[in-house]
Amino acid sequence: MIGVGKIKQYTNVLDRPLSKGKQEVSLSAFAFLFSELVQYNQTQVDNIAELERRLEDAGYAVGARVLELLCHREKGNRRETRLLGILSFIHSTVWKVLFGKVADSLEKGTEHEDEYMISEKELLLNRFISIPKDMGAFNCGAFVAGIVKGVLDNAGFPAVVTAHFVPVDGQQRPRTTILIKFAEEVLQREARLG
Amino acid sequence: MIVCVAVVGHQNNPLYIQSFTESDDVLKLHHIVHCSLDVVDERVNNPKKSGPTLNETFLGLLYPTENYKVYGYLTNTKVKFILVTTDLDVRDADVRNFFRSFHAAYVDAVSNPFHVPGKKITSKVFAKRVSGIVQTFGLSSAG
Question: Which example biological process does GO assign this protein (chain A) (predicted)?
Fold first, then answer.
């Protein structure tokens, strides 16, 4: 039969199937949305600590969902039970999906056993943000800290996560560090697992 | 024939229970799901072999009762999926596929920004997808 097996030609451009599209969102659209989020929260609170907490809560919700999605989509369904495993998962996989690149570095704290740091030369989030002098040490990276907290909490590693600016010589903008402090039970479990 | 599917949160709180037969007592199914949670905890805390089995999500046949078989699946966030079926000869691959599609539907339901984690899943789209998956499971096993 002639014609069977011919590729279907779409006469109307509207009938063509939609492509899957790139799994990316434009940075300017996100920056606009994030600035609105910060401004909205700023009107609702009267001090900086509360503002940081609100950004962290917003990030927490994102982190919980990102964990479920990534574990199903990418990791081949293996559950992380070790500390280093979950940290390297966040440092590479989560960062790659969220920001398009792996984080700059992952370090273990020297003073305390339960502290770890993920640093980034410039958080994608903070690229279009400048902090006024009277806001002091406020860092919009609290949103990213919330995301990390959401991932850790839901994976079974409760932790306190904060974002800090660390001044670096030779660079006019300070480096951002996400400080992760694990709860006592996590360290005990890790010691038990050997 | 799948009789019941359930999603249980990480504190063993029920997030979603759906039964697919009218003939059986719904309460009995709830009770079976509840008992299987103990078996899940036992498997998680005392693995039979250490190593890769410790991290496996699919837990396999949890326990067979008088005319039901119960299968379990554990996700990364300690959320458990329980499947109760009356089939006598269910293939392992079928159950794994079922859980994979079920996990995909669950991830989509949880990604909803209006869903509060820890509360019951109230999305109708999720319920419809689950019924769809349950029906295709029945067909592929029968063939």
Answer: endoplasmic reticulum to Golgi vesicle-mediated transport
